[in-house]
Design goal:
Length: 488
Amino acid sequence: MANLKDILYKVKLISISGATDIAIDAIQFDSRIVGAGDVFVAIKGTQVDGHEFISKAVTQGAVAVVCEDIPIDIHPEVTYVQTDNSAKALGIMADNYFGHPSEKLKLVAVTGTNGKTTTVSLLHQLFMNLGYHTGMISTVQNQINNKVIPATHTTPDALQLNSLLKKMVESGCNIVFMEASSHAIEQERMAGLKLAGAVFTNITHEHLDYHKTFDNYIKAKKKLFDDLPSDAFALVNVDDKRGMVMLQNCKASKYTYSLKMMAIYKAKVLSNSLQGLELNIEQKDVWFRQIGYFNAYNLLASYATAHLLEEESEEILMNLSQIELKNGRFEQVPNNAGITAVVDYAHTPDALENVLQTIDNIRTGNEQVLTVVGCGGNRDTTKRPLMAEIACRFSDRVILTSDNPRFEEPEAIIADMQKGVPVSQVRKVTNLPDRKEAIKLACSFAQKGDIILVAGKGHETYQEIKGERSHFDDKEIVSEMLNLIHNK
């Protein structure tokens, strides 16, 4: 129970009709779950406009409505609050309602097209190892210390997010690392939160189905840095040409990291193999369990973040070097067939190229590289031919398949991907919409010493088809198929 006047604190108000000194049971933005005593926040979403459900929310017992457009027919016993941005108001209201949880811990947000999940996971495990009670909000899962809380979105909605942060505070968390997706930033899900810092990993071709243009996508990421307070830090990868863009007009203390350019935090890759990475950081040679140049960036970002949070350099490096993640990012699948099998979440052109370049850098040239890859349905279609072209460029065999086709036909998605297959490489490509059969085919083609990459789903344990989610785990299928073939 809270007072409406209190939970409207810091919300930009245009007009108010009715009393604000009233008790509020809960905040809702989904009219289907509004109950007696609730305040309903009407948000103009990409698919649905909450303003169309104001009367329904009032009928169900809402005592107050927060909206951008006051309805013509108003209920005399309901308070109507007009604001210029309902989504932003929801974030601020949620922060007030749950007692400003982000002010009671250090909250660091990581944004970028690739590397968010790994960087957040590394930081969470690192600070656990350093003795902190640590929270994590990520694509893979949310965690309070070692307790796992299932994740439904990269960044939860404002109510879920503040509720989760409150639970983290109550559990004694000192620090929380969270992924900040471009959707969440643009939709103001993080409005009202106090950040101790923000990290930018990179930005490449992704989510244009939502943002429409690459410029809009960049602006969404930049907003995270524009909104940082002056006592926070902003850490950006300057090997990405948009890294410095993120720092323009940013009030926070500015820091940079790089493998190539001049930067405050620098690292050099000394060796890169299937066993791990050796990096030189702060004039110290350190071996890490992660694989690939892309992970060198994730490790350096994690090191720099921990250092900015005032941890000792040697302690950071010692603990970071001991971390082994199993999160569907360049995760090797054990098998008895003598085949290197890798499952990776790569679902953007840049991520797929990073993984395949890593494989290319560590292969001897005597083995085949077999890639199984698809593209998600009802998502950015322009990346589909790019993904296929990249797979062909780095692989000896390519199998185009399904990857959460959702409400699209897999054959139509594969047809889009086929447009990127060079004429000279058509013979190396097989189309097989059934993902399990595609993985099985790759495993049957592979010989001892070969490398299989199954890209796109990584940590996911489902396949989404026609609105239904069924169990599907790439790692399980790869292991089953390889061991089955080997034991014949």
